[in-house]
Structures
1.
Amino acid sequence: MKLPTKPRAREIDTRKYVFTVYGSPKAGKTTFASHFPDAIFIATEAGTKFVEVNQITDDDGEPTVINSWKQFKEAVKMLITVEHDFKTVVIDTVDNASDLCTRHVNAENGWSHESAGEYGKGSALIKREFKTVIDALLASGLGVVFITHEKQGEKEDRGVKRQFTDVSLGNSFKNYITGASDFILYCYRNSKGERLMLTKATDNVNAGDRSGKLPAIMPLDYQLMIDALRAATEPTKE
């Protein structure tokens, strides 16, 4: 038995935060998210095939890709109501989840497109359905990571147009997801092939770090991110 020689490092509980992780294909988003504590994936595309992750399974115990809004809702309900040891839910991708929700609401109402609903009713119903399910997940006490893709476009600021990289969700979904997120991390590879992430917004890229503790650019590495957050919360010695 020994006495400690220095204070124990402060733990960073990622369950208190919501992360949006986005970038180009093969940027390393899924691998990065797989290192979150006791993560389980709700996979809406086959992006986890070559990454060792816990994933929602079918009735035979085989990893399954969620392909309907009903399945997605069942997966979320199970994670909220059934006792388990998972601490982080990764939705990969939230783009596909929003598409499943849109198709579900349109089909229920006999619409070919949400614009068929009167006076914006279609879009409002879809947003309400999506928000109800995600709000329940966000309130569950589990950590949440949204994975999405990037899209290139233009942004105008005081009459000046410039290229802008943003999450690929439609505006109503994007505003809700990014608004709920404490961290918006843009993942990319530099000219040397190194995987990096941008944590602070620039004139040309959407990103964000409500903690204000991460470097603006850092390696796409979960443990390095946690180390940076932990170091920023350590008390300074007089």
Note: The CA atoms of residues 40 and 54 lie 5 Å apart.
2.
Amino acid sequence: TNEVIDLLISRTDIDYVTGNHERAVIAAFNNEPPPRGHLYEREHHEWIAKRINPDYIDFINRFPLTLTYEVLGQVILFVHYHLKNNDFISIDKEPNVESLDLLYENSNYDLVCFGHHHIVHEFKSQNRHYLNPGSLGCYHKPLARYGIVEVSKEGIHHQLREVPYDNKEFLKSYR
């Protein structure tokens, strides 16, 4: 974890939003109760919290819940997962355009980019696009999944990509 954060801090071309595990590690570091839904992962978060460089807690704690950018008149929201009262809602196991439009009905976003739920979501309604390229590492195949979004005067276009990687050594390293 420290090595990953070292790498992230060294880069100036990355923006961050906080997620459920960042919140859980901070709670474990501060000996606070785990966030909703993380009771069974507490041991893992405590393991990280005991080993993390304390300076990195402040770095992680500064991650915002959301980031919004306007590009060529298109408003783009980045969020770890959908929010209600500044808390992540439960995972919608069968998402659809109608339920997503209902969540964002009072917003002006043209594109909502999110993660958390590890499956790919590609939805487009009359109101906006919704994109979750899937999990980068939590996938049953050794593929890193991500998306590329292009904004032009004509609108928003995206591509989903998968890059194979050898996960055998990584999986062998687990105890």
Note: The radius of gyration is 17 Å.
3.
Amino acid sequence: GPSHIVDKLILTVGKWQDSGLNQTVLVYDGYWQRSRDLWVAVQKANWDKVILDEKMKADLTSVVDKFFDSKDVYEDLGVPWKRGLIFGGEPGNGKTISIKALMHTLLFDRKDPIPTLYVRDAPYNYHIRNVFTMARRLAPCMLVLEDIETIVTPQTRSYFFNEMDGLENNDGIFVVASTNFLDRLDP
């Protein structure tokens, strides 16, 4: 039967579990896990550590902030509330630190933090499905696809694009992808 002691225990366990969630980032590497290490790395990342034109840094931050602050504008225009960026170039050109600086902007600099999902590996259709299912569940959110050429392959391309732009509602998802090989993304 009902027991206030059991209810109190359940609430206590829930609070304990939630207490660490604010200091982690959800990472997908075949399955979802919470990464405190990535959260700490993002906390330390900022635009001062990125070697990039100051106007470009401001533009990137502005694009992300404006997106998450403009749901009503998208609705008024009757267009899906989704957006994306892709960072490409040779290894070592600052893609990852720029993504972490963007993550820092969303997780630490905003009044209302935006969750970030970080995808390291999703080589099969069912992985891609898991990624987009979680992103839809947590939207509005930023979905980071590290080394997108390992996710969008000839075998997964069609499925990936259906998840991005198919029948499912992706409102509130801001996708940021990185690649060392822009030429591999050509259809």
Note: The radius of gyration is 18 Å.
